[in-house]
Design a protein that fits this description.
This protein has 244 residues and is an alpha+beta fold. 22% of the residues lie in helices and 29% in strands. It contains five helices and twelve strands. The strands form two sheets. Strands 4-11-5-10-9-8-7-6 form an eight-stranded mixed sheet, with helices on both faces. Strands 3-2-1-12 form a four-stranded antiparallel sheet. The termini are far apart. The relative contact order is 0.24.
Length: 244
């Protein structure tokens, strides 16, 4: 009797799924590993069966002693690699979330980046860099012309889009702005025929409760890790390539 192994779910290794799928045009590659440009996202693509050569290629991409972030995967580190942080997290999916467009939500672009970075610095929703807005649609709400809340799209595994950078200025919390923006971003994802998903810190129980109220469900617990490459990278001989 022949048995077949089920194909991996795109969310099992979302960075790998994204950089080898809809976000392939962002990928900086070396062998089987890839990363986003450093001003776009810290996340990377590491195959599930990564071996010594893959880790050497990843170290070459990072540079001697370079730090990288692993998105919702927790591989055993080979000798010479150092863990720099480990944050317990959750992965949630929104199969039942349809979202709702919001007339007050405005699309944010390159001209809004200074305000977006300022809001992120004050609210710390997670990694957001100078070009993160290029990963997908980012929406914001303004009060008297000032950006006070935003949410947008980050990782993009096939058939799924991650909602990220959900944040509200402390002076404007309690008004339901985050919920409205998550709904608006989710509606745009649904318009493309995709399903919204979320990652978050397991300790952020308030946000998790909000997402559950909106219809998101826990798919799995996970971990977000920072790792530092060795100071020397023996055996990494392939030439890096950039897609797109």
């Amino acid at each position: 009797m022949t048995t077949t192994t089920p194909a991996p779910h795109p969310l099992d290794n979302p960075g790998h799924s994204s950089l080898n799928g809809p976000h392939a045009h962002f990928a900086e590659r070396r062998g089987r590993v890839a990363r986003y440009p450093v001003d776009v996202s810290p996340w990377l693509a590491l195959p599930d069966d990564a071996g010594p050569e893959d880790w050497a290629d990843l170290a070459a991409l990072a540079g001697p002693g370079g730090e990288l972030a692993l998105a919702a995967i927790d591989p055993a580190l080979p000798p010479g690699w150092e863990a720099t942080f480990s944050i317990p997290g959750v992965q949630m999916t929104g199969e039942a979330v349809q979202g709702a467009h919001d007339e007050e939500a405005v699309r944010l672009g390159p001209a809004d980046v200074p305000e977006m970075l300022d809001l992120v610095a004050r609210t710390r929703p997670g990694p957001f860099l100078d070009r993160t807005h290029e990963l997908g649609t980012y929406l914001g709400i303004r009060r008297e012309g000032v950006l006070v809340a935003m949410a947008g799209e980050r990782l993009h595994p096939p058939g799924w889009t991650e909602i990220s950078a959900v944040c509200t200025d402390p002076a404007h919390r309690g008004q339901g702005l985050a919920r409205r923006l998550v709904d608006a971003v989710a509606a745009g994802i649904r318009d493309r025929g995709e399903i919204p998903c979320l990652h978050g810190s397991a300790s952020n129980t308030g946000a998790i409760r909000l997402y559950e109220q909106m219809g998101f469900v826990l798919r799995r617990t996970t971990v977000f890790r920072g790792v530092r490459a060795p100071a020397t990278v023996p055996g990494a001989t392939r030439t890096p390539t950039t897609t797109g």
